[in-house]
Write a structure and sequence with these properties.
By secondary structure, the protein is of the alpha/beta class. The protein has seven helices and eleven strands. It has two domains: 158 residues, Rossmann fold, CATH 3.40.50.300; 71 residues, no CATH class.
Length: 239
């Protein structure tokens, strides 16, 4: 995936750019930035939901899996965990076709993979926040994505829940042939896993290896919802 002098925005409103950036296969990219700097716009442009105002975004027929912010979902969904995972297989169905035994087995395997094997029949609305996030990750993985995109996947989770989600993402990164793109404002735990860091600030994207971006001071003084973004602590390579 490559951004070529891409200008990001809504309608005629320019939010960021021009951006030149390339996401390699199997990279783990963390995107940071204060509110309003264009993090969600960057992701929506990457997904093809928003066209760039200028320049281009080349995806080379990449398949995307997307995990939205959980609080944006209607929790009265009358679906089970297994049915949530099956939703990710819908694009692969032909017209007038229904889920067969192979699809259900595939969904059951994904539910097991994300750690919800004993909860396949549990209603989504009855799950904890961390369990709901795992179900949404299973849905996103169903399409065998080339790029898995997660928008604030640990919002409103406690520290153990946040740690568990990042451990799951680390396992996915190690074991699956896909790139991960994670928007996150609590950086310290996720930067232990990331291979690259991108910071949106003042309409520009500063991206590189985590160490390069930190040494350049891209996070200094950056505030998101009143929380200063820090990346303290030693990085654990290969985590």
């Amino acid at each position: 995936m490559r951004f070529r002098s891409a200008v990001l925005g809504h309608g005629r409103r320019r939010i960021a750019g021009p951006i030149d950036f390339e996401l390699g296969a199997r990279e783990f990219l963390v995107v940071a930035g204060a509110n309003g700097t264009g993090k969600s716009t960057f992701v929506r442009t990457m997904l093809g939901v928003l066209p760039p105002l200028a320049g281009s975004v080349e995806a080379k027929a990449a398949r995307f899996g997307y995990v939205p912010q959980r609080e944006r979902l209607d929790e009265i969904w009358p679906f089970s965990v297994l049915e949530i995972a099956l939703m990710g297989l819908i694009p692969g169905l032909g017209p007038f076709r229904f889920f067969d035994k192979a699809a259900r087995r595939r969904a059951e395997t994904l539910v097991e993979e994300v750690g919800l094997g004993g909860l396949a029949s549990r209603p989504f609305r009855d799950l904890s926040g961390g369990q709901q996030q795992r179900a949404l990750i299973a849905r996103a993985l169903a399409s065998e994505p080339d790029v898995l995109v997660l928008d604030e996947p640990t919002n409103h989770l406690d520290v153990p829940g946040e740690r568990a989600i990042f451990e799951l993402l680390g396992t996915i990164h190690r074991e699956r042939p896909c790139a991960l793109v994670v928007i996150c404002h609590h950086l310290e735990p996720v930067l232990r896993l990331a291979t690259r860091l991108g910071v949106l600030r003042g309409g520009a994207l500063q991206a590189g290896s985590v160490d390069e971006v930190l040494r350049a001071g891209a996070l200094e003084g950056l505030v998101d919802d009143g929380f200063t973004l820090r990346a303290g602590g030693a990085r654990e390579t290969g985590a």
